[in-house]
Design goal:
By secondary structure, the protein is α+β, with helices and mostly antiparallel strands. The protein is built from two helices and six strands. The longest helix is centred in the C-terminal third of the chain and has 16 residues.
């Protein structure tokens, strides 16, 4: 098996994930898309996790409208969810 560690940070940077997150996995990065959502990538041993949350609203005609949903600060519940998932998978 190949260690994903050396490539993980490079791939995260290529994907635009530049903000490091402490306290989750061996290495984690978050991309804050402000009101539109966010993307969290986590390396934990041989496992890689990626969670994407975003908001897009459309009219019945398929036209995009401005969302009233504020997803700023979404990294906190995303981190908590990934930590819970990692703990459940280790059982």
């Amino acid at each position: 098996m190949t260690d994903p560690g050396p490539e993980f940070e490079v791939r995260a940077q290529q994907a635009g994930l530049l903000r490091k997150v402490d306290g989750i996995g061996e290495t984690a990065f978050f991309d804050d898309m402000e009101e539109e959502g966010g993307r969290l990538r986590v390396l934990d041993g041989q496992a890689e996790f990626q969670v994407d949350i975003f908001s897009q609203d459309y009219t019945m005609d398929g036209e995009e409208i401005v969302s009233s949903l504020d997803l700023s600060g979404i990294e906190v519940p995303m981190t908590q969810d990934v930590l819970a998932l990692m703990a459940a998978l280790k059982k």
